[in-house]
Design goal:
- The protein has 352 residues and is α/β, with parallel strands linked by helices.
- Helices cover 40% and strands 14% of the residues.
- Helix 3 packs antiparallel against helix 4 and helix 4 runs parallel beside helix 5.
- It has 14 helices and 15 strands.
- Strand 10 and strand 11 form a beta hairpin.
- The strands form four sheets. A nine-stranded parallel β-sheet has the order 7-6-3-2-1-15-12-9-8.
- It has one domain: Glycoside hydrolase, family 3, N-terminal domain (TIM Barrel, Alpha-Beta Barrel).
Amino acid sequence: MSEHRPVVLDIAGTRLEAADRRRLMHPLTGGVILFARNWVDRRQLVELTAGIKQLRDDLLICVDHEGGRVQRFRTDGFTSLPPMRKLGELWMQDPMLATDAACAVGLVLAAELRACGVDLSFAPVLDLDHGGSSVIGDRAFHRDPRVTTLLARSLVHGLLRAGMSHCGKHFPGHGFVKADSHHEVPVDRRPAKTILGDDARPYEWMSSCLSAVMPAHVVYPRVDARPAGFSARWLQEVLRSRLGFTGAVFSDDLSMAGARLLEGRELSYTEAAQQALQAGCDLVLLCNQSVDGGAAVDDLLDGLQAAADKGQWQPDAASEARRQRLLPTLPPLAWDELMRDPVYHQALTRLP
């Protein structure tokens, strides 16, 4: 079987248990996503990430750490970062100052995470602020796709300066629908021309610089009956072919309500993972399923392995190469070094 490690899973607590180690060593595991429950303080986080890398140094350690209300680590020296809307508001006063502030946010965000052993943050949010989405809300930079693109590009520049890859989300756009895909399946009934000319524009204009993209658990019935993360039309025809994106594609969390209800029935995690991978995802996330013993995580790993052995799913070497390109290539500054770094301190002064 071709090497392909598409599963990104979570762990239950603040340290690795035997079951975590077993799952992390599974040949289909390619990454770990951390949450606030995995955090006590910086020392504990450094020990946890070092323990993960000691098991396998190729594992990608990820976190949702955007700023504002989506920031997993907030104490013991971590800077409280603003929501992205703050940068959009600054743009309306001084566009050039806003782009510099966005770069500073990206640098501080990435440098602090990397000092603690985290490889990648699922940021920036590229959804447009249409004003009606509670789940997106102030996580979005702006309503204008041009402003969103320029601020996101600046934030990405800051992330890359600190040696961190990134992930634009949620393709082709989650900002128009009001429903929260954590709890239901949102439906965006606008035509493809409208979506591609507005919400999806940041992906087109950033196709050469995005490391990764995460599609939305949203159905766009004028394009496809399937949510974008399970749609070859969206991921292969539009994102890859039309927009020219060459980076990695992550599914959003397969445990979300918007993830597994396809064509009127609820799929198992294994079926959902297969559907996402066959549609064009390189990696699949399963979050918050390790906290009650992790049976769902084991079912996914074993089920996907069995599917591959039966030829129901074809591992993909190109997907694995895209995953590996997300791993840092530059060594991070340790926290004490970071606290003495003039580049980091300058960035702190430019935060909005």
